[in-house]
Every structure is written in C-alpha cells, then in structure tokens.
Specification:
Shape: elongated
Structural class: alpha+beta
Order of helices and strands: HHHEEEEEEE
CATH class: Mainly Beta
Oligomer: single chain
Helix content: 25-40%
Largest sheet: 4 strands, antiparallel
Strand content: 25-35%
Number of strands: 7
Distance between the termini: 58 Å
C-alpha cells in the first residue's frame, strides 16, 4: 500500500464535509429553538382580533408628554410612570411574558410607590428574553406599552 497523499481533490472533499456538518448543526439548533416557543395565551386568536384596540391604546401612550419607561438595570426591572400622573386615577396590569417558558409568565396589578415607580427585583427573573407589556387606564383613557428585553 502506498502513502495517502492529500491533494486538491481530497482537500475539497474535506472542506465541503466540514461546511455541510456546520450548516446542518446550525439548522438543527435553530429548529430546536423554534420548538421551545409556546403559544402561551389560550385565546390567542380572539386577542388578535382585538389588536385594533391595542393600536389605539399605543397611540394614546405615544401621545403622552412624558412616556412610561421600562428600565432593565443591574438591580432588576423598573417601570417608571411620569410624575404628573395621579396614582389614584391609574389602574392596570403589567404582563411579564417569557416566550420559551410559560410557567414563568406573570400578570401583576399596577401598584406605584410615592415616586410613581414599580420595581421588580432581579431574583424574580431567569436569564433570557422577556416581553413586558403594560396595559393601564388613567381616568378611563386606555394606554398600552410593550418592550422586549434581555435580562441577564
């Protein structure tokens, strides 16, 4: 038997095999990630029909002179309402949605402190992507804001 000689033909086969293996690996990983997202809301289709209402609420929120802020910092998550808002006239809920783990989703009534702030400690969250939605009313005028965050 002769010695194996690495020529351009074998080099091309090796490079192609490495490329295909890498491509298939990333395809598999991407497909697995898609399978982990859950349809969390049971009445998803009914909520989709109400999306026109959500757009009107978003428009109301965008027209505020000072907008509501959702801040992700080292201590956790803070929701900051403008100082001019009367806390007694405000009602609503904050939805914390984890797309890949339904059991971690939370729905919390808005309860602001004396500085119009609501805090969530970092210990309330696991690392990863979170969708935060705020649905509130001030003197019966509806508002809505949502943000996608990555919490580490």
């Amino acid at each position: 038997m002769g010695k194996f000689k690495l020529n351009w033909g074998w080099s091309l086969v090796i490079v192609f095999a490495i490329f295909m293996t890498t491509f298939l690996y990333f395809f598999y990983v991407s497909f697995q990630e898609l399978k982990t997202n859950e349809l969390v809301v049971k009445d998803y289709y009914e909520q989709e029909l109400k999306y026109g209402d959500v757009l009107a609420k978003k428009k109301n929120a965008d027209s505020m002179s000072v907008e509501v802020q959702i801040v992700n910092n080292k201590d956790g998550l803070s929701v900051i309402f403008p100082a001019y808002i009367n806390r007694e006239a405000l009602s609503g809920e904050i939805f914390l949605y984890k797309p890949d783990r339904k059991k971690l989703d939370k729905k919390i009534s808005i309860k602001l402190d004396s500085t119009n702030l609501m805090r969530f400690p970092k210990s309330d969250f696991v690392s990863g992507r979170w969708d935060v939605s705020i649905d509130w009313k001030i003197n019966e005028v509806p508002y809505f804001k949502e943000e996608k965050l990555t919490i580490n």
